Amino acid sequence: MTLAKDARGTEDPYVPSERRLERERYKRARARRATAVAALSTLVTGVVLYLVVVNAPGWQRTRETFFDWGYAREAFPKVLEGLWLNVRLLLVCGAAVLVLGMLVAVARTLRGPVFLPLRVLAAAYTDFFRGLPLIITLMIVVLGVPALRLQGVTVDPVLLGGTALTLTYSAYVAEVFRAGIESVHPSQRAAARSLGLTGRQALRHVVLPQAVRRQVPPLLNDLVSLQKDTGLVSIGGAVDAVRAADIIVGRSLNYTPYIVAGLVFVALTIPMTRLTDWVTARTERRRAQGGAT
Amino acid sequence: MRSVHRAPRRAVAAVTVALLATAVACAPQPEEDTATGPSGSPGNGCVQGELATKTPGRLTIATDEPAYEPWFRDGDPASGEGFESAVAYAVAERLGYGKGAVVWQRVPFNKAFAPGAKTFDFDINQVSISDERRKAVDFSAGYYDVRQAVIALKGSKAAKAKSVADLKDVTLGAQVGTTSLRYIEDVVRPERPAAVYARNDQAKSALRNGQVDAVVTDLPTAFYITAAEVTDAEIVGQFENRGSAREQFGLVLDKGSALTGCVTAAVEALRRDGTLAELEQRWLSDAVDAPVLK
């Protein structure tokens, strides 16, 4: 009759056994001990690191040269001003790269003999621009194109630099998309076709959505990478965050501005990285549940 | 759950060990004991050819790559041709190191001033002396009085400038880390931000391609660029020195280097006996025919 009692909300007849209580006490004690040990080892590590760094010969000069508060304060607003250029480049180039990369990837996966030249061109493009070092692409586009004195072609170093970034990164992203497209099981396409969708409709409504969703983590990786490489457009004379730091370093021979610029970039990248991790984890969870990926 | 916890904990332990290992392994070499050599006492203890150089019996001199005209000829500092190459050998001679005892090293401008032991005895690279930089490095006495000049394409709007105010609405370019850039920021204060280049030849190509209206460099470089490299450009004029202080190029030595006193004494001696003036005459064009922009 215990069940009926329970339902009426009278006292719970369950009394944990002595053995169970003992087990729980033991578990709690172990957990406390683990926390204490972890805290202590972290503290010891911190102290040892601090002592090693501070007592290292040359620390004094390193601190003066790399961690000077006065220079950090001077550099921060200028670096932020330069960072605005990096952010704008990231947004515009990022959008252009996604579009162009997708077009190239689709061109590479088209079926049918008539599309052979398109496939060959797309493959040649990705091979070439993935292999060509970004800095060379930038030099050729930013410093070489204006020398051609083409009518109606801009000489603005920022636009040219953005073009070079887009060319290189589209090749990377095209490969990411292509891997995604090819990872969609052929049965999906076959099923779509058997439902009466045309080849184009199957690609557009069945294959690409799955391909893109699957490729979000590597895409975000490339985006983080692009964000850091936007600084390279400064070879054309535009002042970005790194170059802004460079200017102060050149004048003062103090390296603190580099540290400031580096930290600003890291601060910008961390949210992106966390987002990538979160998206990956979510995808994994869904896949583990056997849901749609 | 235990195993889940254990992995990160083990990772922390591993990282700790690794960090400690690197911290110990990468501890910098101790700074040189500067008390052994006399410093700042010219002519005193500067034994000819027996200074406390990096390599005993040899004088290691650094400069950037590429090395530009008119400071170096054909990008080769060891030729003795070009103003700075000639000055370097003259200073070496004074210190008792003949041509055969001089070793050249190529060190990028920014790298030459990183803290820690230097790989060279002194660096000669058109570095302007400033109090701010003195906190990071030692300078010899100045070996050249430098003035900044503006160059622009012939017939352009910038080329017609008669004063600093006329340059306010043109796009100016300069090399990063140079006094030229500071002149743009402090003296001209143009409406559009200056274009900043890693190297002078990029500034030159930007001028040629119309990406900037005018470029600021030191006067000898300006003369060389307009005479030999961008022949459709001309010197618009030269700036007056900022404030009343003379701007001078100096040889760069490690902070607290034992050689600073001896090198300074050598440079001063070269100035006294007219060698510097003679080398200037020989390698650098006369600067009188560039109008001064007020």
Automatic annotation (TrEMBL), chain A:
It comes from the Bacteria. This is Ectoine/hydroxyectoine ABC transporter, permease EhuD. Keywords: Amino-acid transport, Cell membrane, Membrane, Transmembrane, Transmembrane helix, Transport. One of its GO terms (cellular component) is ATP-binding cassette (ABC) transporter complex. Belongs to the binding-protein-dependent transport system permease family. HisMQ subfamily. The keyword Transport applies. One of its GO terms (molecular function) is transmembrane transporter activity.
TrEMBL record, chain B:
Residues 29-55 are annotated as: Disordered. Residues 58-287 form the Solute-binding protein family 3/N-terminal domain. Residues 1-27 form the signal peptide. GO terms for molecular function: ligand-gated monoatomic ion channel activity. InterPro entries: Iontro_rcpt_C, Solute-binding_3/MltF_N. Pfam families: SBP_bac_3 (PF00497). GO terms for cellular component: membrane. Keywords: Signal. Residues 58-286 form the Ionotropic glutamate receptor C-terminal domain. Gene3D superfamilies: Periplasmic binding protein-like II (3.40.190.10). It comes from the Bacteria. PANTHER family: AMINO-ACID-BINDING PROTEIN YXEM-RELATED (PTHR35936:SF19), MEMBRANE-BOUND LYTIC MUREIN TRANSGLYCOSYLASE F (PTHR35936). This is Amino acid ABC transporter substrate-binding protein. It comes from Streptomyces glaucescens. The lineage of its organism: Bacteria, Bacillati, Actinomycetota, Actinomycetes, Kitasatosporales.
